[in-house]
Amino acid sequence: MVPVLAYVVMALSGGMVIWGLLTTAVNQPPYKAQLLYAAGVEIVTVVQSIVGFVGIARGFRPEEFGTTIGYLIGILVLIPAAWFWANVERTRYSGLVLAVAGLAVSVMTLRLMQLWVPA
């Protein structure tokens, strides 16, 4: 796990949280730019997971191996699911869905950093 990349993911997903809460507060569905931003955050998250899987393939074994694998896979599902939901159901609460996904990605990335210690 590259700490700088993890911090970038957390910062970008934090932006998702703020933007999602703002669009919910002003009673608007997410704009196209917000959905594109979420897609960009997903790309960075995919890069982070690939880096994690490459580290594991090279022989790094985290102390909680199964949990780490679960987080590396699970973190990839959140933003696409929220993006799809926000795009299909265009209500003011769609921004809240994106905000919750951003918060979950941020927390899961923080947890991955804690788990990324050798066994």
UniProtKB/TrEMBL annotation:
Keyword Transmembrane: yes
Transmembrane segments: 6-23, 35-57, 69-86, 93-113
Protein keywords: Membrane, Transmembrane, Transmembrane helix
Keyword Transmembrane applies: yes
This protein's name: Integral membrane protein
Classification of source organism: Bacteria, Bacillati, Actinomycetota, Actinomycetes, Propionibacteriales
